[in-house]
Amino acid sequence: MTDRIDAGAPPAGDMDPEVYRQAAHQVADWTADYLRDVERLPVLSPVEPGTVRNALPASPPGTGESISTVLADIDRLLIPATTHWQSPGFMAYFASSGSGPGILGETVASALNVNAMLWRTAPAATELEQVTLDWLRQMVGLPQPLFGVINDTASSSTLYALAAAREAQSDLRIRELGMAGRPELPRLRMYASAEAHSSVEKAGIVLGFGKDGLRRIPVDERFRMDPVALRQAIREDVAAGIRPVAVIATAGTTSTTSVDPIPAIAALCEQHGLWLHVDAAYGGAAAIAPELRWVLDGAERADSIVLNPHKWLFTPIDCSVLWTRQPGVLRDAFSIVPEYLTTTDGSELDAPNLMDYGTSLGRRMRALKLWMVIRYFGADGLAQRIREHCEYASMLARWVEDERDFELLAPAPLSVVCLRAHPPGLDDPGTLDTLNQRIVERINSGGHYFLSHTKLRGEYAIRVAFGNLRQEQRHARGVIAALRGAIDDVG
Ligand SMILES: Cc1ncc(COP(=O)(O)O)c(C=O)c1O
What is the CATH number of domain 97-491? Predict the structure, then answer.
């Protein structure tokens, strides 16, 4: 019997269910092998730009091809040009590992293919999202009430949160009248630390605050927002007739994972009536481990919080949680209900229509994969994995401290270490930057590890980020050996 998977598409309708079954088994085997063997592949793809584009036909096939031909092209053309985020050697940026249960959740969600715009279009997806986010709220130790929705990315979640912050200035009637051509409108201002993520600035641009509408507050020696400087900035702006609107505190900054003093920031927000948004996109997951719960201290006073399960919670990208204590304001910022979407299914509490809480009408069933991740690993299992990643970072940080030729450039409170080579007697800043850049390039071209960099106080810093689900202690030892080897090679 010939495999039906090798046949082309039928004359009408979808793939035959039996062909789908065969192909799905093949894909299941393929993904299991990939996850088992990913460590053997070069983590940073070595291809040149244009490789994939040039290897693919410039125009689409006129007649359908068999699914086995297409699957073969994944191996042949796409895998060599893939940078393997799933590899334990991936230590750049922040980890984003898709776990087995998360991948299975994605698969089922795709098969169901519901669009959770209204409660009635997806009762299970809507209610699962509410329950799963309430579980997650409990896991990170945040008090009720907290309304949660899942968005694609933290950039979207922060944009929506800051749109709500703007909406909370209800006397300005921006939803009705916009911001253009209104000389009576005061200049609006938001505040975030010098280390806050660029998504805050982007949201400011989109929402009409402009780049100038975000005031960057200096950080202390541990890269945390200085609340005294924040208070001074707010005072100066008020005196100048500028309207302060929101403060964005970060729990786990992108460069160094520093955690802003949220309680002190919350107190200022309460005093001045400002919206407090906490960007815990990366760091929030740490709070699942009881001994790391301090990262969210003060976040219980925030108006909104973002936490990305697709960063450090082993959920395949994309999955970003936005919680708010002010769901009514978030809804006021976004809800538009054309006639064809009106329903009478229940109250906002019983049957929320998730389209009302952001720009997207259509929404994927993202909660399923997160629910499966939480159920499979359990809160304790997730905490244990997060704890291990922090231990690997501590191990590397201790090694750096003991090493003559390397130095730490920032504290490492969570799973990321910022360091550089600094051999004794080599103090010229430009030479040090070049040396460290060459170390990163050397390690990255070796295929076993992928590291990224940042600038701290103007100096080039190597960033080593743990957090991949497949990492073990041997990977921490391995990257230490790679750093030691690289300085010998390029130094
Ligand atoms: C602290 C922080 N916030 C926000 C973001 C943006 O995340 P996303 O890619 O989900 O938009 C990042 C990305 O690394 C981040 O580190």
Answer: 3.40.640.10
